[in-house]
């Protein structure tokens, strides 16, 4: 395979790339997270040397020493972002600089080296460009997964001296095949996601590992997702395993839990900005599960929704817990949820004006 040098990256094209007709077939129903493109980006980090060996290369398994630090102590962070194919054939990303910034913040929390934001951006763009033919049209998108993990072979407990940064890409179909459906949530009684001083605000694999048993419990109770309460008092609503939450009240105002132990979602921040621009009163304040039940039952709460890059905005229908179930509104979302979803996806896909300059052309 011939390698060429573009900028600081050495590019090696995949000589066994999926053929165009086969790719078109796969893109008809990509699902989520199970289909991958032909290439990946890797950059190595070595203490004392910094970032080096920048590569765009055929997607392939890593060879890891069994003592590789990430396999033992989970020193790992990731991001999730999307590239879209616009009507005119051009390619756009949504606020990727925010992912770059959050990635550096997650790295700092996990005692890892922060990759310079412009290098993160260049890595992601290199992959989007070389695998551009994998971006689905219509309502699909190319989901990008940058991640960084400790790669030193050493069993002592301290931050690793070696890391691998990698970006892979996975074509994703329309998230809601066969129509949008409100999700049912399970409120976890005894499992929490994040405590003050912990890693709740960092996008690290360990948070997800800790959430899986609660998610399993949610499924066992016939729910789609788990919603976590705070670790200190087991009282305040925090977020889902991988999405932030919003509550729409009957006076038109919106409440969302404040930052701190929750993940600072870019979708969350965008929704707050869009809603405030419409003149909606958005309050970032503590909101208890007991209040949620009371407000949903009395009708004071009209709608509730969850948001994140993967599913964008999803209505919350019913909430189940050991203390009983309750339904929000008619159990199927509402006008505020729907209009915020339409506006956000419209901006992301270049169909709605973008006054804040959130759309980044590749
Ligand atoms: C990634 C993530 C979100 C959503 O963040 P976005 O930037 O909107 O995609 C919310 N909660 C958790 C725990 C997450 O990991």
What does the model show?
The chain has helices spanning 20-26, 69-73, 96-109, 117-130, 205-220, 266-277, 289-298, 335-348; strands at 3-6, 9-12, 39-46, 50-58, 76-78, 81-85, 91-94, 141-150, 162-172, 183-187, 225-229, 237-240, 244-249, 254-256, 282-284, 301-308, 312-321, 324-327, 359-361. With 362 residues, the protein is an alpha+beta fold. Strands 1, 2, 3, 4, 5, 6, 7, 8, 9 and 19 form a 10-stranded mixed β-sheet that branches. Strands 10, 11, 12, 13, 14, 15, 16, 17 and 18 form a 9-stranded mixed β-sheet that branches. It is globular. The model has no long low-confidence stretch (mean pLDDT 95). The chain binds pyridoxal-5'-phosphate (PLP). Pyridoxal-5'-phosphate binds next to helix 6. Residues 80, 203, 239, 242-244, 263, 265-268, 308-309 line the site of pyridoxal-5'-phosphate.
What fold name goes in the CATH topology slot of the largest domain? D-amino Acid Aminotransferase, Chain A, domain 1
The largest sheet, given as strand count, sense and whether it forms a barrel, is: 10 strands, mixed
Terminal residue distance: 26 Å
Topology pattern, helix = H, strand = E: EEHEEHEEEHHEEEHEEEEHEHEEEHE
Strand proportion, as a percent range, falls in 25-35%
The average pLDDT is 95
CATH class call of the largest domain? Alpha Beta
State the low-pLDDT regions, or none: none
């Amino acid at each position: 395979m011939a390698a060429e040098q573009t900028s600081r990256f050495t590019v090696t094209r995949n000589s066994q790339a999926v053929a165009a007709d086969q790719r078109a077939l796969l893109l008809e129903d990509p699902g989520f997270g199970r289909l991958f493109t032909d290439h990946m980006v890797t950059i190595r980090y070595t203490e004392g040397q910094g970032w080096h060996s920048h590569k765009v290369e055929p997607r392939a398994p890593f060879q890891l020493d069994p003592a590789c630090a990430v396999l033992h102590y989970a020193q790992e962070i990731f991001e999730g972002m999307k590239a879209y194919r616009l009507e005119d054939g051009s390619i756009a990303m949504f606020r990727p600089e925010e992912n770059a910034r959050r990635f550096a913040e997650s790295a700092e929390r996990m005692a890892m080296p922060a990759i310079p934001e412009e290098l993160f951006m260049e890595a992601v763009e290199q992959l989007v460009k070389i695998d551009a033919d994998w971006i689905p049209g219509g309502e699909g998108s190319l989901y990008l997964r940058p991640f960084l993990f400790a790669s030193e072979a050493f069993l002592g407990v301290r931050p690793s001296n070696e890391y691998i940064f990698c970006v892979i890409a996975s074509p994703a179909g329309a998230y809601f095949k066969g129509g949008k459906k409100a999700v049912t949530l399970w409120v976890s009684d005894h499992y929490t996601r994040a405590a003050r001083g912990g890693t709740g605000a960092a996008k690290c694999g360990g948070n997800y590992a800790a959430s899986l048993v609660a998610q399993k419990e949610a499924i066992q109770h016939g729910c789609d997702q788990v919603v976590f309460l705070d670790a200190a008092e087991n009282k305040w609503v925090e977020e889902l395993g991988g999405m932030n939450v919003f509550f729409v009240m009957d006076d038109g105002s919106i409440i969302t839990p404040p930052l701190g132990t929750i993940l600072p979602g870019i979708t969350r921040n965008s929704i707050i900005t869009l809603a405030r621009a419409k003149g909606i009163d958005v309050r970032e304040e503590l909101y208890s599960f007991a209040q949620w039940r009371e407000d949903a039952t009395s009708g004071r709460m009209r709608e509730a929704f969850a948001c994140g890059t993967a599913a964008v905005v999803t209505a919350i229908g019913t909430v189940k817990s050991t203390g009983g179930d309750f339904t929000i509104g008619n159990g199927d979302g509402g006008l505020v949820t729907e209009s915020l979803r339409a506006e956000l996806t419209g901006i992301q896909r270049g169909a709605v004006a973008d006054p804040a300059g959130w759309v980044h052309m590749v």
